[in-house]
Amino acid sequence: MSKTKPSGASHYEILFVVSNRFTEDEAKTCVAKVEKLITESDGKITLNEYWGKKKLAYPIKHEAYGYYQLFEFDLEGKELAKLDEKLRLDHEILRFIIVTKKLKSDEQIKKEAKIKAKIDKKQADKEKEKKSQEVKKEEKKEVKTTKSGKAKTDIESLDEKLEGILNADDLL
């Protein structure tokens, strides 16, 4: 058994943030540049998600916002090191992270889709239940306000009657 890593491309995921100094169109050209770096290194991009402009968790180089991009790709290990070095030297990218991603079989993907569907259904049921409870609470509040409104008018009428009695001349 060999202790060396098997040759061939591994599956990776990269998430990077482009500086907010650029407009959205300029940020997309920066994203295209990274995509070109991957494909020139004989990499194959399997997923491309542009997340848009988002607030950073903390300021990076005095910037609070950045444009997020996610790629999943297949690339050889030697080429990954070169890609990493090129991204480190790129001044347009504030931060990036590359992680090894485990490939999922079709069976696993179907299983996860079923689980996600169940979770979504449960969340929808919870939201319906929550809305119905809120409606019930609102109805109870309306009933309470009408009861308390009647109580206020009764107290006001009692106050008027008491004033009338106290101001009457023939008390004794």
From TrEMBL:
GO terms for molecular function: small ribosomal subunit rRNA binding; structural constituent of ribosome. Gene3D superfamilies: 3.30.70.60. Keywords: Ribonucleoprotein, Ribosomal protein, RNA-binding, rRNA-binding. One of its GO terms (cellular component) is ribosome. GO terms for biological process: translation. Residues 120-153 are annotated as: Disordered. The keyword Lipid biosynthesis does not apply. It holds the Pfam family Ribosomal_S6. InterPro entries: Ribosomal_bS6 (IPR000529), Ribosomal_bS6_sf (IPR035980), Ribosomal_S6_plastid/chlpt (IPR020814), Transl_elong_EF1B/ribsomal_bS6 (IPR014717). Signal peptide: none annotated. Belongs to the bacterial ribosomal protein bS6 family. Binds together with bS18 to 16S ribosomal RNA. This is Small ribosomal subunit protein bS6. It comes from Candidatus Falkowbacteria bacterium CG10_big_fil_rev_8_21_14_0_10_39_9. The lineage of its organism: Bacteria, Candidatus Falkowiibacteriota.
